[in-house]
Amino acid sequence: MDNIQNKVQNEMENVSPEKKEQILQDFDRFKSYLGDKVALGEKMGLGEEQLAKTAEVVAGYLAKKEEPRNAEENLLQELWRSGDKEQQHALAHMLVNMVRK
To answer: What is the pLDDT of residues 6-34, one digit of tens each?
Structure first.
């Protein structure tokens, strides 16, 4: 599992600024992108807990390295930063559930 999380971390760090802006400029676009990644993870056989742990990596990265582009992303960042590890994990589960198609 750590290997998958490392791959996710590396992929996020290697996304071009233009692509990152395209994904994050609109919350619906962000949800769609995240939904596609969750669906890919499910096809790879990742379970609910693995998906949530991977979502934690993404959320942690965004909270530390990206400025919110809209009110929804700002709210998510505030929730993430105000929570402890257990609350962040619960939020990651909710994000996965939110974007499932």
So the answer is: 887 888 888 898 999 999 999 999 999 99
Q: What is the pTM of this model?
A: 0.88
Residue 19 to residue 74: CA distance in whole angstroms: 19
- Are 96 and 48 in contact by the 8 Å Cβ rule? The answer is yes
- Alpha-carbon distance of 33 to 99, in angstroms, equals 9
Cβ–Cβ < 8 Å for 60, 9: no
H, E, C per residue of the chain? CHHHHHHHHHHHHCCCHHHHHHHHCCHHHHHHHHHHHHHHHHHCCCCHHHHHHHHHHHHHHHHHHCCCCCHHHHHHHHHHHHCCHHHHHHHHHHHHHHHCC
